[in-house]
Amino acid sequence: MKRILIILTLLINCQSKNSDNEEKNRILAGVVLSRITTGTSATTTPSSTSCSNATPSFSSLASAGVNNSCARSGCHAGASPQSGYDATSFNSNISRVTVRNASGSLLYQKVNGGSMAQYSTSQINQAIFCWIQGGAIQ
Fold this sequence. Notes:
Blueprint: H1 2-13, H2 19-38, H3 59-64, H4 66-69, H5 90-94, H6 106-111, H7 122-133
């Protein structure tokens, strides 16, 4: 247990010029610590894991409110989106996804318990979960 806590401390304090790597380390540390202390994952699946559409398209994210919550001016849209992530871009989203594995995808982790959770809604979480699980199609 002591070794694991030391490793977690190193991961959290790891200095990186890449904010995505830094965030991945924090998420990994949180997941590991959560599993050690509670036996569960830090991220959760939406309350209703059944998706009304088995293969939702990328546009389903906008319909759920991603463009209103995430793709606002000064956030993840426009010419200079924060962290180089444009929430309206399929390519920007797909680079943060492990297809058919929402809980293993950086995008889902960030909006469902990570640094972006405070800006997310249950509809956005559900849409992202279903889009990833459905194959993350354009």
